[in-house]
């Protein structure tokens, strides 16, 4: 036998269970076993399903809006409504996973259409383990359509739900699947909103109250008025005392020169970071700000895709890398961003100002990121927390416990909204 023919024969033998090396009776017995195995396959005939894979049956994009009765605001808006965007994925064997996409300050219609028309067809009939393929296909398509932001948020919700399914199928909490071992993660109290007739002294009492509840770090809003905000920061530091960490959050309100002046005005109050002071795509502005500010810069929570964060890192524009798995491209993309930060010697912090689904995802990620500095524990945006483990409300030493339920560990399903 020529060498080429021999190699081909051996390859075919290996692929077929070495049938060429069997006797006739052995080959017949092998074929009979194959027929029996085929008879046990599910109706769709997929070997993956027979092996206990997680085959997706349906993908449901679910926008939801609720009224908010509050006078509280940040420097840019007061909430009269709160909009959410969830994705529910059902499998052939009866499991359901949930994910969330960032939906504040925008309408959810584009997200729903993106999931229904572009992403769901990539998922139905396929395995939830193929989340990397789905994200990559969506990203490559978005490069052509120039809808990178909408695509990132939509696929974030889908990929998060896929991870939730994987945890439920394997009967493991997500943080263990991501390689983490520490069941507690650092959090900070995020509050300090504006409100009518709320004085700087009132704000100080509020923030000091969070420390009494077990937090050792707090964050407040700034950006509405330069002089007033300096006074508010001073009042909070006086109320806190010297030890608790204090951060301030702008919501993309100012320019480089104004932010530098403000940083120098509040530097004496020992501020850990200034968050998102400039428009998020002003990469050169962040570079210049970081070079001049006496306080470290944090951002930017609404950004999508790892290469965007790499631009902040490569220009040395941001020190604390703030990411959000409901906006950046999902769980796996969050890990990629965190790895970029780790390699460059930067800490990560995770943004959360929506539902229990996002907060749970943050906690699982934080437990798996070695350079994680903190998770935002929002004191205003605690939507659907009644569907979450009660133990994450208990803050001890500035940390909370990661949910131990399977997947994300939250009890939010499509049935939760039927009433």
Task: Produce a short descriptive summary.
The chain is α/β, with parallel strands linked by helices.
CATH class group of the largest domain: Alpha Beta
Kindly state the percentage of residues in helix. 40-55%
How many structural units, i.e. domains? 2
Distance between the termini: 73 Å
Q: Label the structural class.
A: alpha/beta
* Number of E-type strands: 12
Average pLDDT across residues? 88
Account of the 3D structure:
The model is unreliable at 1-51 (pLDDT under 50). Helix 11 (283-292) links the parallel strand 7 and strand 8. This protein is α/β, with parallel strands linked by helices and 419 residues long. It has helices spanning 3-15, 24-39, 47-50, 109-123, 131-145, 148-170, 174-177, 200-212, 226-240, 256-266, 283-292, 306-314, 331-343, 356-368; strands at 56-67, 81-91, 96-101, 184-190, 217-221, 245-249, 271-275, 296-299, 320-323, 348-350, 372-378, 399-401. It folds into 2 domains: 56-172, Enolase-like, N-terminal domain (Enolase-like, domain 1, 2-Layer Sandwich), CATH 3.30.390; 175-417, Enolase-like C-terminal domain (TIM Barrel). It is built from 14 helices and 12 strands.
